């Protein structure tokens, strides 16, 4: 096979990144924007050792699930991957992705429960981070840092549109200089927006704090949208792909926003993690609560707790919540949130879970239930080993990456914890990302209680 060859192929599978997979001349070919069951004509754009990449040139037999992409930027922007299929097909793709990963990497063959889909596929995100470059404000194209200017994003809250155009106007009117990552110079790097039920935070990620005409920006933003309740600067002077720097300054308004979930309230500082899809977050936490099945007596560890959300959502159903989180601002929020929620059965520790958990055990604390909600890279082995030594009855694992979940489940499985129930949750419609919640129980036969 060579570059520029053309083939007619059938799409028989999908990659984890949402490309269709077919075969030509015995070789796997990945073709973006195709769907299982389609017959397509492709043009080979790249040939690698184990697979090739094809460009779709003609759909000969379309899938009944093919739809006209609702997003006008879909074929340029790298933000979403699945607008060319209907939502039922997207959910099926995500279920298969979780099941395949668990089987292939984790050796777990048991059936998974149906995915919890979203009521809204559009405008669900409460947090956006748009890069700012000399090409404008927008999103990067897939697998690159080429900016695609965006006016209207189909998955961001629709308040972002007005904010983007105001910031764009302000940049042009006052001659602000966007950051150039190749030359490592310029002032503005990202436009970071977060929306809660209290209001909207607009944060400019900048290389240094000496940004002129910020008062004009504040006036323009507030005129444009009265829901805006804070304008902040986040300082990130480093040559890095990490979006946010460590320091944040308030230009106007509040530094923290509040958000309500059921009868609990959370203050969220700009550097703290908060789930991006509120409707799905509640469904996820409810499923985690169902799996934890608390009766009121348990000590629950909320490991990777962020601002304390899951633990505080469940705190009134257990004896004690012990939270561990590495970001200081988030731990501060978690402690304040416990006070606001009038909870006196919570305790928070700041540091890497793998370092802190053994210290908590040394103090004599033993969990009955452990909730694990790690970042994409999954749990540190030391943390898993530590959890195993204290023998909790149950582990509820919430994962945002099926492959690292599969690796960690395999590890736990070999050490006495069986995945009893597995439910994917669609936290990120139109993208290939999928959240999964798993109930693990201690296998009494193999590891008797000590
Ligand atoms: N459970 C929270 C946050 C989940 S995101 C929620 O649902 O909102 C994962 C969290 O793990 C982030 O807040 C991140 O800062 C934290 N984190 C990452 N690595 C960590 C580590 N080694 N130890 C403790 N926390 C960590």
Summarize the entry for a quick read.
The chain has 450 residues and is of the alpha/beta class.
Tell me about this structure.
This protein has 450 residues and is an alpha/beta fold. The chain has helices at 87-106, 160-174, 214-224, 278-292, 309-314, 328-340, 353-362, 381-389, 402-413, and strands at residues 6-10, 13-14, 20-24, 27-31, 39-47, 51-61, 127-133, 136-140, 147-149, 188-195, 200-206, 228-235, 247-253, 257-261, 264-268, 299-303, 320-325, 346-350, 369-372, 394-399, 417-425, 435-442. The strands form 4 sheets. A 7-stranded mixed β-sheet has the order 9-8-7-10-11-12-13, with helices on one face. The chain has a 7-stranded mixed β-sheet with strand order 18-17-16-19-20-22-21, with helices on both faces. The chain has a 6-stranded mixed β-sheet with strand order 1-5-6-4-3-2, with no helix packed on it. A hairpin with a 4-residue loop joins strand 10 (188-195) and strand 11. Helix 2 (160-174) runs antiparallel to helix 3 (214-224) and helix 7 runs parallel beside helix 8 (381-389). The radius of gyration is 24 Å and the shape is globular. The site of S-adenosyl-L-homocysteine has 18 residues, from helix 5 and strand 17.
């Amino acid at each position: 096979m060579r570059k520029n060859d053309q083939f007619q192929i059938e799409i028989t599978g999908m990659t984890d990144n949402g490309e269709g997979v077919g075969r030509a001349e015995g070789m796997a070919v990945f073709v973006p924007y195709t769907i299982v069951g389609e017959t397509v004509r492709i043009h080979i754009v790249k040939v690698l050792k184990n697979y090739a990449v094809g460009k779709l040139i003609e759909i000969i037999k379309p899938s009944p699930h093919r739809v006209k992409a609702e997003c006008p930027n879909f074929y340029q922007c790298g933000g979403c991957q699945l607008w060319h299929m209907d939502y039922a097909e997207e959910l099926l793709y995500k279920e298969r992705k979780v099941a395949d990963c668990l089987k292939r990497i984790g050796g777990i063959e048991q059936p998974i429960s149906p995915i919890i889909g979203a009521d809204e596929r559009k405008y669900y995100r409460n947090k956006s981070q748009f890069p700012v470059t000399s090409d404008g404000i927008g999103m990067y194209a897939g697998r690159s840092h080429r900016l695609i200017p965006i006016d209207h994003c189909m998955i961001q809250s629709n308040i972002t549109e007005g904010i983007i155009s105001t910031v764009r106007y302000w940049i042009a009117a006052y001659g602000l200089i966007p950051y150039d990552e190749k030359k490592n110079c310029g002032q503005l790097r990202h436009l970071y927006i977060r929306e809660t039920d209290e209001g909207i935070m607009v944060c400019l990620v900048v290389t240094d704090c000496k940004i002129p005409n910020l008062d004009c920006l504040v006036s323009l933003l507030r005129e444009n949208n009265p829901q805006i309740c804070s304008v902040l600067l986040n300082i990130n002077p480093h040559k890095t792909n990490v979006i946010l720097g460590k320091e944040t300054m308030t230009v106007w308004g509040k530094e923290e926003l509040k958000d309500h979930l059921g009868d609990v309230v959370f203050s969220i500082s700009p550097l703290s993690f908060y789930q991006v899809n509120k409707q799905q977050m509640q469904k996820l936490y409810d499923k985690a609560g169902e799996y934890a099945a608390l009766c009121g007596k348990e000590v629950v560890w909320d490991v990777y707790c962020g601002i304390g959300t899951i633990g505080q959502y469940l705190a009134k159903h257990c004896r004690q919540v012990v939270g561990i989180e590495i970001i200081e601002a988030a731990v501060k929020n978690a402690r304040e949130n416990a006070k606001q929620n009038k909870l006196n059965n919570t305790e928070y520790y700041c540091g890497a879970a793998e370092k802190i958990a053994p210290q908590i055990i040394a103090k004599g604390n033993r969990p009955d239930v452990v909730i694990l909600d790690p970042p994409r890279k999954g749990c540190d082995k030391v943390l898993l080993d530590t959890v195993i030594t204290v023998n909790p009855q149950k582990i509820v694992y919430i994962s945002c990456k099926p492959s690292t979940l599969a690796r960690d489940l395999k590890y736990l499985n070999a050490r006495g914890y069986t995945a009893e129930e597995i439910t994917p949750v669609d936290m990120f419609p139109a993208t290939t990302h999928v959240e999964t919640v798993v109930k693990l129980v201690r296998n009494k036969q193999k590891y008797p209680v000590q």
